[in-house]
Design brief:
The protein contains five helices and no strands. The longest helix has 11 residues.
């Protein structure tokens, strides 16, 4: 079963032992925005995705469920 974008963010956040407020502060987002992202009620901007990728050390491909890059 594939995880949604929000489920991936929630899992990454919980694996990092952070609450939504702490993640928000570290990624320049509000707790409310993190909650909306995790519940798939908000489509994150490119900047939001970038901040989350950099913070968690994951690729956008992973978060967006994209296939591996092929030449």
């Amino acid at each position: 079963m594939k995880l949604t974008f929000g489920e991936k963010i929630k899992n990454l956040r919980e694996d990092s032992d952070l609450n939504q407020s702490e993640l928000g502060k570290r990624t320049n987002m509000t707790q409310r925005k993190i909650s909306y992202i995790e519940n798939n009620k908000y489509e994150p901007s490119l900047n939001d995705i970038r901040e989350l990728c950099l913070f968690f050390g994951v690729s956008a491909d992973y978060l967006l469920d994209l296939p591996p890059y092929r030449k």
